[in-house]
Amino acid sequence: MNLLAQLEQIVGTAHLEVGGHPGLTDMRGAYRGQVQAIVSPGSTEEVAAVVRACVSHQAPVVVQGGNTGLMGAATPDDSGRSVLLLLSRLNRIRALDAENDTITVEAGCILQSVQQAAEDAGRLFPLSLGAEGSCTIGGNLGTNAGGTEVLRYGNARDLTLGLEVVTAEGKVWHGLRGLRKDNTGYDLRDLFIGSEGTLGIITAATLKLYPRPVRFYTALLAFSAIQHAVDFLSEARRCWAAALTGFEVMAGPALVQVAEMLSAQGMPEAPQAGYWYALVEVSEYGVSGQLEGAFEQVLGENLENGLLTDVWIAQNEEQRHAWWHLREQRISEAQRLVPGTIKHDVSLPVSAIPAFISAMEQKTAAAFPGARMVGFGHLGDGNLHYNISPPADADAGSFAACKSAIQHLVHETIHAHGGSVSAEHGIGLAKRDMLARYKQPVELELMRRIKMALDPLNMLNPGKVLPAWSEPGTSIFPGTKESS
Ligand SMILES: Cc1cc2nc3c(=O)[nH]c(=O)nc-3n(C[C@H](O)[C@H](O)[C@H](O)COP(=O)(O)OP(=O)(O)OC[C@H]3O[C@@H](n4cnc5c(N)ncnc54)[C@H](O)[C@@H]3O)c2cc1C
């Protein structure tokens, strides 16, 4: 039987498509692929059967969730040989165990619906990011997503206790354990998380839940230098400990750009290009109400001693939401309106951030005079979105021609300061070729061996993360037969 007929038999005519589909292009429009078929299985067993059928026809499988990833990792190549696997029908909340503080969800669940299910049970699922209305748990785990609450709760990996995975041979690993302690050998779960669909297909996950904070205290802070923001973060950690849930930084020029391109609405005053701003939030879990006093006291003391240049405390929920909206949406919206803005998702030890920024300021001024650093990011996690817009009077075309030189400069400087060239967005296609430069040969060799062990026929999302080193469907172990 040919592949399409086999797939139709597995998922039914209504869930098999051929031809065009929005999922063939990534959300930034940078990558476009072609496929033999687009399938939407309705159960884990159907996913496994689809994978087995694809393997027998040597058709690579590209799994896609909400298609909000930023590295081209969910876009099939243009060979037309792949099958695009959509998990939107795997969208059930399977169980919520309030006593164990866990929720078990299928991989196609939209992140926001998982947050809502937790809220309905009086709990918190703390993964939170700008794309939460359309990204899926499968994609969050596939990319080990971070977001705005990593400082307090960790990234997607830290929030996961168990997985159900369809392997590259189409077998099902039932690993949905809700255990916080389980030292029974190699941690398979951690291999699949962050593997961007190249090692297995996550069909469900058991995730950690937390108590819901009863109150938030939020402030917008201004600093005259990034070193002051880093020093204050250290102080905030010392004084507020686990109550500190967010510490997001925004470069002055990024807010000036928002004011110019959109409006300064919601900002307490006109932003200054020479400042750094931070959105800081603490959460209170008990009923004591004591945190408010501690919050204001620490801010007051550090305003007095000059570490903080200015402080605005959110007066109500509306103001708090407006500031988060500024950080999570409006900065990116403004940058989309400036053609030629070059984006980077990088991380550093927090202590190395001031030296990195200072080195970059000098190098950028020398090589690309007038270029504006419009960075922002999760300072508490050492994660910067170190974006650079063209000089105000430059034409976007000539600046775009410098894109690879600027990216190279940023990544070399990051590497020299002990950082990572991908903090939370992954590797996909966009950063694949950088790995050879920034990973040690032994790391790359181990990664390649893991791929060979889990996907010996190179059927899952070939060419992503690691460069393809064999044709899909061809065994990478000499002497091993292809499955049929
Ligand atoms: C506005 C916006 C804000 C963002 N903010 C953040 C942020 O703060 N932090 C952050 O980390 N990221 C952020 N991102 C990017 C982030 O990676 C994605 O939003 C999200 O985690 C990807 O989920 P998705 O369902 O869209 O995955 P997709 O884009 O569909 O896929 C991403 C990768 O995961 C793989 N994958 C998908 N489903 C599965 C599965 N079931 N099993 C195995 N692999 C799978 C795909 O093959 C692909 O390699 C943002 C993106 C946008 C557009």
Pick out its properties.
single chain, 484 residues, alpha+beta, seven-stranded antiparallel beta sheet, five-stranded antiparallel beta sheet, binds flavin-adenine dinucleotide
Strand fraction: 15-25%
Q: How helical, in percent, are the residues?
A: 25-40%
Mean pLDDT: 93
| Bound small-molecule species | flavin-adenine dinucleotide
Low-pLDDT stretches are 478-484
Number of helices: 15
Describe the structure.
- The structure is a single chain.
- The protein is of the alpha+beta class and 484 residues long.
- It contains 15 helices and 20 strands.
- The strands form five sheets. The protein has a seven-stranded antiparallel beta sheet, sandwiched between helices. Strands 5-6-10-8-9 form a five-stranded antiparallel beta sheet.
- β18 and β19 form a beta hairpin.
- α1 packs antiparallel against α2, α7 runs antiparallel to α9 and α11 packs antiparallel against α13.
- The longest helix is centred in the last third of the chain and has 20 residues.
- It starts with a helix and ends in a 30-residue tail after the last helix.
- The protein binds flavin-adenine dinucleotide (FAD).
Short description:
By secondary structure, the protein is of the alpha+beta class. Helix content is 33%, strand content 19%.
SSE inventory with pairings:
Elements (H helix, E strand, L loop, with lengths): L2 H9 L4 E2 L17 E5 L4 H13 L4 E4 L17 E5 L6 E5 L4 E5 L4 H10 L2 E2 L12 H6 L7 H4 L6 E7 L5 E4 L12 H5 L8 E8 L1 E2 L3 E9 L2 H15 L3 E8 H10 L14 E9 L6 H14 L5 E4 L3 H20 L8 E3 L5 H15 L4 E2 L2 E3 L4 E3 L2 E2 L6 H5 L2 H14 L18 H4 L2 H14 L30
Parallel strand pairs: 2-4, 3-4
Antiparallel strand pairs: 1-2, 5-6, 6-10, 7-11, 8-9, 8-10, 12-14, 12-15, 13-14, 13-18, 16-19, 17-20, 18-19
Helix pairs in contact: 1-2, 7-9, 8-10, 11-13
The structure holds flavin-adenine dinucleotide.
